[in-house]
Specification:
It contains nine helices and 20 strands. The protein is globular. The relative contact order is 0.12.
Length: 351
């Protein structure tokens, strides 16, 4: 277990932003993770869990406490059952399951970060969410002081949310278990319209899992959503805002604002999101409110490839990023009466 003091955190995040931690511990086994958490809790030391750093916005002043970087390794495949250590690189794990001819997470290719973060956010993209394949999450329960195994039904998964996100200071994910599908090398049924169009198939069709993965990687790369050190459009946290979910009265008011602003024939994206709920597109809202690709003149700007990504152009500070984010939130609310919610976790700062 490695320990550093006054350690920079910016290099551990995909934004490349944020000040140092008082102490940084890198744990390479589950036991080291648990020991570090117990030590911090016993001493009353603030604790920040760092995985792949793809969903963190850390304040410029840094973190006054212990940052615990989870660098555990472990990929175990038994038939269709997959177990990943929390520190496993997610996109590499997806590639290995596709190479094994299994389906279920192939459309989650290219998502940066570690496996341990996937149940926290209920990571999803291109028609798949991890909640549909996760069977169990092994976590250290800081309240109980013990390691627990939480079955899918008790994870409280919903859109970009879970029990782990609801109680961020309670659970530290150690391992994630999945049940994948052996469809003879084919993918799960293609659900996302853009993916189906690109593949030239109908929704519900299957294609070779490798083809589905490669197609998603190309789609993500075209939006700056695959990490590339040379491309500042990828110096981001991917989608910075979640897609708003509106009640019937909220959607009616929103629809009226769309007609008022864009004309009576304008139609906003609308997708069923449960009884009495409708999900709309954050990217559409941002664009129609006037924040187009490349918006901004400072060191933090909207991606030139996708309006949903806020980016560090190389010299930004966290405050630069937050200033841009607040401008977008205010502009969308003024235009459409909808309040955007940030997807990344903020540390020492608030939007």
């Amino acid at each position: 277990m490695q320990e550093l003091h006054d350690a920079p955190l910016a290099p551990l995040t995909t934004f490349r932003l944020g000040g140092p931690a008082t102490r940084l511990i890198t744990a390479t086994t589950d036991a080291e993770v648990v020991d570090a958490v117990r030590e911090a809790d016993a001493a009353g030391t603030p604790l920040l869990i760092v995985g792949g750093g793809s969903n963190l916005v850390i304040g410029d002043q840094g973190f006054a406490g212990t940052a615990l970087r989870i660098a555990t390794q472990g990929f175990s495949l038994d038939g269709t059952r997959l177990e990943l250590a929390a520190g496993e690189v997610w996109t590499d794990a997806v590639a290995r399951t596709v190479e094994a001819g299994l389906a279920g997470i192939e459309c989650l290719a290219g998502i940066p970060g570690s496996a341990g973060a996937t149940p926290i956010q209920n990571v999803g993209a291109y028609g798949q969410e991890v909640s549909s394949t996760i069977t169990e999450v092994v976590a250290y329960d800081r309240a109980a002081g013990e390691t627990v195994v939480i079955p899918n039904a008790e994870c409280a998964f919903s859109y970009r949310h879970s029990r782990f996100k609801a109680e961020p200071d309670r659970y530290v994910v150690l391992r994630v278990r999945f049940e994948l599908e052996d469809a003879g090398g084919l993918s799960a049924p293609i659900k996302y319209p853009e993916t189906a169009r690109t593949l030239g198939v109908e929704a519900g069709d299957r294609v070779p899992a490798a083809t589905a993965r490669e197609t998603v990687l190309k789609l993500r790369a075209g939006k700056g959503m695959v990490l590339d050190p040379e491309d500042h459009d990828t110096w981001s946290a991917g989608s910075f805002f979640t897609n708003p979910i509106l009640t019937e009265p909220e959607f009616a008011a929103f629809h009226a604002r769309v007609a008022e602003r864009l004309g009576p024939d304008a139609k906003a994206p609308a997708f069923p999101a449960g009884e009495g709920l409708t999900k709309t597109s954050a990217a559409w809202l941002i664009d129609k409110a006037g924040f187009t690709k490349g918006y901004g003149t400072g060191p933090a700007r909207i991606s030139t490839k996708h309006t949903l990504a806020l980016t560090n152009r190389g010299e930004a500070t966290t405050e630069d990023l937050l200033t841009l984010a607040r401008e977008v939130v205010a502009g969308v609310h003024e235009a459409f009466g909808v309040t955007l919610v940030n997807e990344p976790v903020t540390v020492g700062v608030r939007l």
